[in-house]
Amino acid sequence: MIKHIAKFVPTLLLGITLLAMSAPGTASPKMYRWVDNQGNVFYGDKIPPEYAQQGNKELSEQGVVVKTNAPPKTDAQRAEEQRQAQIQAEKDRIIKEKNAHDRMLLNTFSTEDDLVMTRNGKVAAIDAMINATKSRNESLKKSLISLRASAAERERNGQRIPDKLRKEIAAMQTQIRDNINYIASKQREQEQLRTQFETDLDRFRELKAAQAVAAKQAGQPAPQKP
Q: pLDDT category, 220, cuts 50, 70, 90?
């Protein structure tokens, strides 16, 4: 059987060769096309071992390419494919979340006023928590002043400050500090809430405008604002 057919074999010769190899009474071996390191093209029913990992093409009995065998991927290529897959997965996740958020806006709010009222309600709820915490802190500060005065009085009289009093003062200072941090966190939450709702309001307007355009193109009356 023919092992190799050198570079630039004429199509007629290649066809005759393939025809001879597939004559009645003989098995039809696979034929391959490969390229050596110098760019020379070869044909044969077996690929030399040194070129087996460089990619090749399988030919039909008529000399038509029926399958392309790509060379094995390098570690760098596999790593790059994985990196690209991760990038695409992140893009898909962002698009999925954005679409879900769009559906939420349209399903939850009918008008811009609905969205604004919801925002104002959430801001007011946080305001209530902030004010309640501030009120507790004022009471704690007054109690702390009283405890410190008691401790100072004992020191002036040369008396030992009881451990219980020291712990009460320390605990009250910690509670006041925690409350201050809580108030700051709630104020940041309010700002984030306002920013998010401004973004949502702009997006809601875009979605409603797109709905109106789609309805107009479909020959339907545009949604009316209540």
A: low
CA distance 139 to 48: 90
110-207, what's its fold?
A: Helix Hairpins (1.10.287)
Q: How far apart are CA 211 and CA 203, in angstroms?
A: 12
Instruction: State the pLDDT at residue 165.
Output: 93
Closest CA to 203 of 107, 119, 116, 106: 106
Q: Residue 122: what are its φ and ψ, rounded to 5°?
A: -70, -40
Write down the domain spans for the chain: 11-69, 73-108, 110-207
pLDDT in tens, 130-160: 999 999 999 999 999 999 999 999 999 999 9
29-to-46, 56, 150 alpha-carbon distances in Å:
9, 16, 104
Asked if residue 24 has pLDDT above 70, the reply is: no
- Scan for tokens 């925690």, then name that residue: 178
Flag the least confident range among 66-70, 135-139, 142-146, 199-203. 66-70
Nearest to 176 by CA among 199, 210, 144: 144
User: CA nearest 44: which of 78, 21, 11, 67?
Assistant: 21
d(CA 33, CA 60): 11
